[in-house]
Queue: 2 jobs
Job 1
Amino acid sequence: MSWNYYFKDRAGHQNGPVSFEELLVIARSGRIAPDCLVWPEGGAPRAARDVPELAAAMSAPPPGASAALRADFPVWGLFWRSLVAGIGFLFILPAPWLALWLYRWLMERVSLPNGARLGLESGLGRPAFLFIGLALSVIIPSLLGAGDAHAAQRGDVQAAQLIGSLVQVVFSFLILRWLVDSARSEDGALRVAFQGGFWAFFGWSLLLGLSVLTIIGWAWVIRYQARWICRNVAGSHRFEFVGEGLELLWRTLVLVLGSFLLIPIPWLFAWYYNWLVTQVLAAPAPEASALGQSLAA
């Protein structure tokens, strides 16, 4: 399709000749509407929407516009991998290998709006420290007082649980930063880093814990915490979380209550996490930031 094309723009003015490649660029820019006429030199006019390539170009977001991430977590692939990683976490030592294996698989099932799949560029060294530390902070406090019916009233058990919770927040923050810093895209365009501060993350975690007392308020805390996380991802792309608190609430309740029935669990988890990923919008940053340039170097 290299011959010359003519077209009428939104104002009804005739333009051309242009190549078909140039016509696609014009369609992406929004200069022509679906009902605008286009035709090759010497050919019959057609509505732009009737030319498949032009219809796709007009439906694509304009350059720099935000669009949702894409996810395709298969039901059984997500379920059995999550189950294996969860069991391995309980044994502590396998946790880093299984976590890296799971996160790599998850990232590869997520795509940027342009279709480029994500990946995880990380060795074992950093996640080994992070996931063993997280596993220990969960397992050790739960083992204290095991078999003691009055363990919940013991001061040493309460202190260990409090310390364990604080350590879990620390490692959760470090894991978040590692995950964002290690994210890459197959086209090489994605280079980002997490710039949010620990104390802000700690504040959000504390607020989330307190919001459980309100029965439903946690859904809105999760919403705004996710927005804070996305807005603190800096580099080649910008991100925005657009999920609503009410939708987080009912979907999470369906997930939790449905899980009591056991059989629907694989389908519920795939339904929930596929939806959750699509609530994140992504777009190339207007300009490469100094951080993005240093990461690409």
Job 2
Amino acid sequence: MKAIIRTKAGKALSTMAVQELPTAHLQPHQIKVKMVSSRINPVDVDLMKGMPFLKYKKPQIGGIDGAGEVVAVGAAVQAFMPGDQVFFYRKFSDIGTWAEEITVNASDVAKIPQNISVTEAGGIALPLLTAYDALLQLKAQPGEKILIHGAAGGVGFQATQLAIKMGLEVIATAGEQDIDLLQKAGVNTIINYKTQDFLREVAPQSIDYVLDTVGGEVLKKSLALKPKKVVSVHYVDTSKMIKTGVKLPGLLKWIMKMMMSKFSRLAKKHEVELIGQVTGADGDLLQQVSTEVNQMDFTVKLSKTLTLNQIAKQGMSQQDVGKVILFQ
């Protein structure tokens, strides 16, 4: 089978190459999936560049999420059968989805919603799980207000649609090119981040929650709005990293905590509960949000695509982040 592998440590996916590999052996707790699609996520860049606390296989297949069709199940698997269309997100310690056929732990897998295609599911698996997990941590109630930064992005657009289904009033930041998309999704208040400062458009304490997908100054300014809670994908809570399947060395945990301390201090100053969003592999949670999506008029934002043949000829780069790899 063809697979996209990490030939060595390197920046921005520059060392990825397409090679022929044997199909992995199916373990009792796993399912074998004929891959259809997989998103190139920002975290894939970091994982393929090299993390000192990860043990990489030789060869190491890239990719952490995706979707496809079940072709075989292990002896201990009861929730899935051949022919099921599924999507999944894996742990950092178990990466490897960019191949024509893969094995994956059944506990990381969910059946895709019936109202989206398997190709679309592979393009949103990680963003959808992240968005749902983040919103659940807020424990928001219908009628409350949430400001979502990057509301038309990978995580942001899934979160926007889910928040509206949960009965929340969404205020969105986005670029002008995405205003129509967000209006069609049901957002009434949209702040153009290129021409408007959300800190001037939103009065302090007028919103209940913020979902931050941008980080940096945007996170700082969001804390200054004094909502009840802010959940951020860019605020690293080292105590939650075990969800990704890795145990951080003590020194690295200390360094990361120091890097995040400026946000922690601001949160304490403004009396805001700051939540770091760390997404772990969780098939049950992914199945929950799949069920939610199945009950919605859900929109999957179109993504640019790449084929294995294209990657074999031209390689991969930072510019490919956000694109969806097609395996068929």
